[in-house]
């Protein structure tokens, strides 16, 4: 992130703001200590004992994704591109969340696996399991570093603390509550953080719209700004994708972002899946992503819209859009708007909201890393067959190691001016090929264990090749176009390689694939209960998903 000159952005925080921040941190650490009481074995620490209600896991599901990139990155995209940024929510999230709920969760929850790599172990065997476990663990440390770096940058710029002090203090707080209470502490704090984030962003959006003359005023100002009226409609989104041709741009958004990247992220990313797997029943597990989809539809209105407001009302952003060099970049849009609009007191809530978003993202990465490293790497390949107590005691120490790793990768993140590009590249490396392996293995029983790991490795390699060609200028795409192409390449290569190798090698016998392949799994075992705590029309996953999908279509029509 471009760190601004101290006097340019320093917020005039008063005693009331610091008091609100201190109160927030007391609550966060208190949740960690309370969650510790319920931890008696490793399942409690890593998966909350599969005991949480759907509304808790649903809010945590969306809050785990509401990290630094969502707040800073999407408001930056809003300031730069306008409405096409909505695609990251309505095309690049909600359909995939519904697919996870209705199709994937019955397999995950029904097979009682403890992690996504463990599902890979049952379906494809140890080589695919190890490849997936290592790549996932590496991705979590890299992404946690992004959240930590942004959090430290904000504290540094707003409050004046040195960057290294900010980094260590932020890491220490997240480490404390995650190490104390495991996943339960992370999830309950994510619920708290979700409401703090909304309480911070709603007033900012309201005051910002008032400043520019309401929605009509915003439309007029955006139409008159560089980029013009194209920023007011989501489609075809040429500026966002970097494609000059509208058809290719729509294809890139729908296939690259909406299918490969989005489905790859939401359906195989254990950070998200872990929240659903912590719920108390199959029905609750299916409802978790759907409940999360409702706020996900509305979040762009308090993230993207403030970015658009900043782009036409904050003097530095107006100058930046006009091609000048005011000493800021688009990542600063949300902070500059806060500086201009928020009085003391409300400013403290907004600061707490920003810190909450970054901490929620980092805690989600740490808790998922804990589970995968302990179960899928350490227990499976390093120290086997120890009592459960041994692995429970390891949890906090793994958290400490992961936090130290995140401090290191935060410095890698500091070298990137556009963190959204960095994140999308990581997703194209790690999530896109994994989704191809998953989807083929789940619906094609002939796919073999050898194809499982070779397809993953070569799919990832193809995404890396596209990235290197883009960096070298051989593939000339601006925006996030290179990561969309890389994700598409990873998916296609993985599928093609897996099919060829499967036809050349021996598959597992059918009896070993029950519960792991759709056609071999009894349909009753994939159905959620509709009695007792799961009774009522408002708890039916398919009906809820239909409502969300209808709202998504309407949103795309209205803002398209």
UniProtKB/TrEMBL annotation:
TM spans (from-to): 18-35, 55-76, 88-109, 130-155, 161-180, 192-209, 247-267, 288-309, 346-373, 394-416, 422-444, 451-470, 482-503, 542-559
Please verify whether the record's keywords include Transmembrane helix.
Answer: yes
- Designated name of the protein: SSS family solute:Na+ symporter
Instruction: Give the UniProt keywords, A-Z.
Output: Membrane, Transmembrane, Transmembrane helix
Q: Which terms does the record give in the GO molecular function aspect?
A: D-glucose:sodium symporter activity
**Recorded GO CC terms:** plasma membrane
Predominant place of localization: membrane
Phylogenetic lineage: Bacteria, Bacillati, Actinomycetota, Actinomycetes, Streptosporangiales
Asked if the record carries the keyword Ribosomal protein, the reply is: no
């Amino acid at each position: 992130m471009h760190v601004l000159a101290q006097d340019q952005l320093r917020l005039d925080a008063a005693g009331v703001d610091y008091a609100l921040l201190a109160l927030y941190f007391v609550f966060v650490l208190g949740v960690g200590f309370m969650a510790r009481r319920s931890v008696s074995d490793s399942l409690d620490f890593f998966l909350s004992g599969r005991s949480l209600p759907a509304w808790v896991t649903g809010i945590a599901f969306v809050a785990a994704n509401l990290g630094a990139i969502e707040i800073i990155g999407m408001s930056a995209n809003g300031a730069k591109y306008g409405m096409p940024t909505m695609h990251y929510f309505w095309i690049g999230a909600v359909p995939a969340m519904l697919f996870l709920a209705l199709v994937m969760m019955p397999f995950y929850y029904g097979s009682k696996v403890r992690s996504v790599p463990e599902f890979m172990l049952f379906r494809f065997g140890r080589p695919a399991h190890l490849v997936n476990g290592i790549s996932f663990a590496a991705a979590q440390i890299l992404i946690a570093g992004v959240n930590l770096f942004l959090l430290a940058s904000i504290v540094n710029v707003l409050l004046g603390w040195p960057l290294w002090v900010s980094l260590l203090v932020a890491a220490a707080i997240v480490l404390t509550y995650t190490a104390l209470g495991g996943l339960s502490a992370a999830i309950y704090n994510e619920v708290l953080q979700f409401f703090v984030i909304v309480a911070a962003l709603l007033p900012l959006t309201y005051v910002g719209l008032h400043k520019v003359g309401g929605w009509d005023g915003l439309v007029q100002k955006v139409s008159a700004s560089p980029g013009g009226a194209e920023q007011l409609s989501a489609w075809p989104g040429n500026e966002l994708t970097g494609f000059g041709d509208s058809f290719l741009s729509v294809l890139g958004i729908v296939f690259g972002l909406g299918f490969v990247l989005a489905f790859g992220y939401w359906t195989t990313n254990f950070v998200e899946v872990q929240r659903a797997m912590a719920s108390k029943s199959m029905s609750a597990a299916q409802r978790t992503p759907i409940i999360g989809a409702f706020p996900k539809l509305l979040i762009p209105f308090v993230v993207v819209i403030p970015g658009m407001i900043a782009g036409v009302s904050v003097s530095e952003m107006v100058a930046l859009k006009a091609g000048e060099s005011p000493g800021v970049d688009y990542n600063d849009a949300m902070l500059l708007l806060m500086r201009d609009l928020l009085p003391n007191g409300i400013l403290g809530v907004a600061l707490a909201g920003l810190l909450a978003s970054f901490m929620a993202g980092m805690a989600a990465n740490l808790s998922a890393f804990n589970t995968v490293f302990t179960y899928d790497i350490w227990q499976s390949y390093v120290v086997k067959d120890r009592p459960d107590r041994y692995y429970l005691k390891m949890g906090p120490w793994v958290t400490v190691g992961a936090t130290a790793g995140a401090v290191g990768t935060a410095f890698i993140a500091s070298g990137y001016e556009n963190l959204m590009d960095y994140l999308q590249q990581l997703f194209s490396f790690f999530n896109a090929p994994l989704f191809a392996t998953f989807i083929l293995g789940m619906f094609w029983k002939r796919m073999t264990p050898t194809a499982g790991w070779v397809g993953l490795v070569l799919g990832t390699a193809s995404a890396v090749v596209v990235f290197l060609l883009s960096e070298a200028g051989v593939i000339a795409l601006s925006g996030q176009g290179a990561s969309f192409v890389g994700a598409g390449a990873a998916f296609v290569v993985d599928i093609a390689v897996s099919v060829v190798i499967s036809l050349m090698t021996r598959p597992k016998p059918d009896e070993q694939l029950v519960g792991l392949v759709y056609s071999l799994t009894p349909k009753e075992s994939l159905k959620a209960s509709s009695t007792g705590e799961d009774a009522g029309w408002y708890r039916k996953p398919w009906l809820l998903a239909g409502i969300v999908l209808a709202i998504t279509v309407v949103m795309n029509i209205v803002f398209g």
